[in-house]
Amino acid sequence: MQQQEIRSLKLFQEMVHKVPAYKKFLGQHGIRPGSVKTAAWLAEIPAINKKNYFSQFPVSETFWPKSKQEPLVVTSTSGSTGQPAYFLRNEKIDWQYSVLAEFFLKNGPKGSTLLINCFGMGVWIGGLITYQAFRYAALRGYPLSIVTPGINKTEIFHCLGRLAPNFENIIFAGYPPFIKDVIDEALEEKINLSKLKIRLLFAAESFTETFRDYVARKANVRNIYLDTLNIYGSAELGAMAFETPGSIFIRRQSLKHPRIYEQLFIKGRLPTLAQYNPMFVSFEEKNGEILINADGAMPIFKYSIGDRGGTLTLGKIEKIFAGEGINLRRLVAKNHISFQNLPFVYIYERADFSTKLYGATIYPEPIKEVAQRGPLAEYLTGKFTMQTKFNRKQNQTLEINFELKRETKPTKKLRFAVQKAVIAELVKKNAEYKNNYSVVPHKVLPKIVLWPHSSTLYFKPGIKQKWIKKA
């Protein structure tokens, strides 16, 4: 039996005996815990989620008994798929994130470092746990200072202008679209980012490699493999998985080789490819859904967080590359990339983060490509909200609302250029849309709406962007 299976079985058995809510949950589903004696039998255990577990039982019944006597921190989900939910975590989760923080610091250049924590500092997990994790890591001997302006751009620019020049290295930590805003607007604030050695730490959502290249170029990032990192995290568990130089390299290489990409991922959808420490958390895939096992103050077993994706091993990835005549290890060595001997998980946006147009499922990823690449990136911030609307005759229209950069005017010429680029990208990446466009092009033309920078209807500054708006 593999170590991950042993740990999963042990976690299940302990939750059955010590967590009242979980014992009741199994009873509701007709599961007799005593009959589950091997890891293989765990496949029959139903998944828990916010609706059937955390919303059904009192918070006090979802804890380990010992955790009720521990000092805990409360954070909230964003509520992007419904009502916000509250989760409590103990010091263990902060410490696990600090291992990742130390990994990022070790991979970076030596010398004094300033972390500018641009995650929101309210009830959400990002700001507080990032501060705590890097604080723990710094106490292990790293010359790291931390400033926490949160999403206050005025304070961020003050930090960049007056504080940052006193440090050899700068780490920006924050939500990807927000960090992009800061980088884009730095020049307007007369801040020359090229004079600073900047590294970028992201969390909260996936982004394209075009996005990575864009922000790296604008911020003069030295090494995209060592100096950029995206975290797969949650309010429930903090930092669950994270990009590594190896995972970034594999993702970028797969985009160059369509046959490899289609064996690894779903065509037309680009996931975050991350690695995880199986001593802290484990992932499994069932019918395309990600399930998570982890031990915290509120332990979870086969927890459906709402994301789609799957798991991979390095061996399987190497075999896929080898099938196309590519020796991955030799290629990695040639590019001076190091691999972490950890399992992989790949994650797409949530299953309900899409909309429909004449039967075609439209995801945000192709639209992000349009907003974040080439000449259009000079006019668009990269943020947008799309939704399917119906006219009086109940004909469908895909409306995409884009945010313009400061001083950019919403001209007809720009609107037409954006529409043309969106159509081209959807035809390229979405087979359903391509078929519809070839038959009834006038029915599936996207309606493009251009909004001034920071327009509050769709683009409230600093909060998590809603890429999809449901009717």
Description:
The chain is built from 16 helices and 18 strands. 36% of the residues lie in helices and 23% in strands. Strand 16 (380-390) and strand 17 form a beta hairpin. The strands form five sheets. It has a six-stranded mixed β-sheet. A five-stranded antiparallel β-sheet has the order 9-13-12-11-10. 41% of the residues are buried. It is an alpha/beta fold and 471 residues long. It folds into two domains: 91-350, ANL, N-terminal domain (Rossmann fold), CATH 3.40.50; 355-451, GMP Synthetase, Chain A, domain 3.
Write a concise synopsis of the structure shown:
This protein is an alpha/beta fold and 471 residues long. The chain is 36% helix and 23% strand.
Which helices and strands appear, and what pairs or packs with what?
Blueprint: H1 3-18, H2 20-28, H3 50-54, E1 73-76, E2 86-89, H4 91-107, E3 113-117, H5 125-138, E4 144-147, H6 153-163, E5 169-174, H7 176-186, E6 198-203, H8 209-218, H9 224-227, E7 228-234, E8 238-242, H10 245-256, H11 258-264, E9 272-275, E10 281-286, E11 289-294, E12 300-312, H12 314-323, H13 328-334, E13 344-350, E14 355-357, E15 360-362, H14 364-371, E16 380-390, E17 396-404, H15 412-429, H16 431-439, E18 447-451
Helix pairs in contact: 1-2, 4-5, 10-11, 14-15, 15-16
